[in-house]
Amino acid sequence: MANLKMGFRWFGEKDDPISLAQIRQIPQTKQVVGALFDVPVGEVWPQEKIDALKKQVEDAGLKLEVIESVNIHDDIKIGAPTRDKYIENYIQTIKNLSKAGVKVICYNFMPVFDWLRTDLHHQLADGSNAMMYDESKLPKDPEALMAEMNSGSRGFSLPGWEPERLAALKELFAAYKDVSEEKLVENLKYFLDAIIPVCEKFDVRMAMHPDDPPKPLFGLPRIFKNREDMLRIEQLHESRYNGFTICTGSLGENPANDLPAIIREFVPKDRVPFMHVRNIKHVGKNKFHESAHPSTEGSLDMFEIMKALHDTDYDGYIRPDHGRNIWGEDGRPGYGLYDRALGITYLLGMWEALIKSNLIQMKAGHEFCAWPFCMPGNNF
């Protein structure tokens, strides 16, 4: 049984109160999931900056093999005449990351907004706080939402909410006005057709992240919401380098999504190089908040999720995701140290139990089974 490549997202020493030394102390956590956050979207990531980040991570006794994210310029998603320039920049970034030993790039294809919430510090009954989405409180004006997100960030940068990109929000929405779901899929295919041959040559796997929430918002299309969308994306380019980040929280925001079944379908196809494993709590229609990772604390069956990974021999990269702020911590919304570290130990505990339970069953089968009656195909 393969071991999980456990990681922890880190936003860099200039913008993350969590240190690499602290991450190093989380059991069995060897991977830092990082990025360059000071390079404008669409520009080439300089090799010297990538190498400096890698050295910083490795000097702390950790590895940098997963990048989250190399964000995609809106002109690529829109299909603007300038998209080829930005695709060429993206290709050069892939090559540069490959030289640094990066194996996976997590990305998304969400128009305008990345993930969104209506409350970044929702108070929970136990005194902790977590991010919440309540569609009834979603502002009708996107600019009002952006102001709320900026206010709730409390000075921390929010991944996917680049202020320089969103400064001209009305113009950005106008640019997307003729982009339907079908057109967005076409533009994704155009992008994948350009980059996947490069990914294959340089051994860097693309792992598309689901939409969050997984539904159209503000009239903008969403194209990675469920299993059916995954099948469509998979067929856009038949290569294991065209893969997915299965985020249990994002897909789990729609209760109709059968997460263990999705894992059991796509992991054996070798299309899942990266997992985000987290829990959420549904508290009403189109209303949920982030929760602690254990099944008892949310609406997702985390055991069945981990069992699906175990049963499909998953050996890829994995990290906990949005946790609460607990024990007095007041960090970046969703990305505190303590609750994510607790999440890792919980996930690893289940993984150890699954492995040892399987070994015990195998041992018991050998002890009580006499040849040839336990040969494959015999049902005695």
Automatic annotation (TrEMBL):
Q: Identify which cofactors the protein needs according to its UniProt entry.
A: Fe(2+); Mn(2+)
What EC number(s) would the UniProt record show?
A: 4.2.1.8
Supply the alphabetized keyword list: Iron, Lyase, Manganese
Q: Which residues cross the membrane?
A: none
- UniProt-listed Pfam families: UxuA
Pathway(s) of this molecule: Carbohydrate metabolism; pentose and glucuronate interconversion
Matching PANTHER family: MANNONATE DEHYDRATASE (PTHR30387)
Query: What family does the entry list?
Result: Belongs to the mannonate dehydratase family.
What's the stated role of this polypeptide?
Catalyzes the dehydration of D-mannonate.
Protein's recorded name: Mannonate dehydratase
Q: Which organism is it from?
A: Lentilactobacillus parafarraginis F0439
Organism phylogeny = Bacteria, Bacillati, Bacillota, Bacilli, Lactobacillales
